[in-house]
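Record type: monomer structure entry
Structure origin: computed from sequence
Chain ID: A
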Amino acid sequence: SKDLVEIELDWFEKDDEVKLYCLGVNQDENMNQALKLVDRYHELFAKSNYDGYVKKPEIYVYTSTAESEALLDKIDKEHLHVRRINENRNLVFATLKEHSVFDDVDKENEGKEIKGDKQMNVAIIGLGGYGMELLKTLSWLGQAKGYYLNAFVFDGEDGREKLRAVAPDMLRYNYLGVLDKDEDAGAKGRKLEQITEKDASYSIHFYNKIDVKTASFLDKISEINKKTGLTSVYVTLGNDSLNVQTAMAIRRKLARETGSIDDPKLYAVVFDTTKTELLQKADIKDVNGKIDFKITYIGNLEQAFSQETVEQKEVEREGLEFHKCWANIND
């Protein structure tokens, strides 16, 4: 078999769509392959009359490193499209497209008299790559009119400092307009009447140095659920087995307290596709046979490398329409 960069590039017919995917586990190798393909395409178009003969070839590259972003931004892409793919971000988009966080909130509030915004009360267990992208995406979705995000973030290290390192501006808007909170810079120095509907606003609560195998962790989840009524919980600890164990422990704790296995919606990341299929087929109950755990398993290998997840074209179209509505752009 040939390496991707060694394949013939001039086999296409008129108006063909040409797509190449650099999706290996090694991100540096993905970048090297993409850069070599770009060079080869430039040579091909320089000596051949292919411009306008075919649609611009598309190269998709799985890489999330800072240097890859800088390199891909600088290369000449006159004859082709080069897309840098953040695996965790795309998985989050695919998950939220299939399992709408708005649906979770709406079902929780069905039949209730709502005053003000519907509360999107979400717990994220583990602020690694997937958990961080999930938090960033939810903070954006939480700006939808009629909704307000309360995120409860649990991490074995310092979740606030992790967020500050990758998205410091998110902390600027944390608790914006909430008068009894001043942990972050958002509410300081601004009067409530100065805050407009154009300002991002959400509340992110951090619980650091948490051991998910302890009773105190489950007690805190229970306390938050009693106070707020969690609408969804995402377990994203970076280990399939630990994610499943933690999700089961959460469901067992809350189901025994509330008598419900339907609320909150409970999601666990399981990358192993075989394990996901087995878990979905198995009728798993707790030791006394009374509690069906009712966990939705997300983020598996098959989903991660599907064409829909990689390209995200439908999500991008919907995202653009969503943003235009939020920004009141009509054309």
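Annotation 1: Strands lie at 19-22, 58-62, 81-85, 118-125, 147-154, 203-207, 232-235, 265-269, 296-298.
Annotation 2: The chain has a mean pLDDT of 79.
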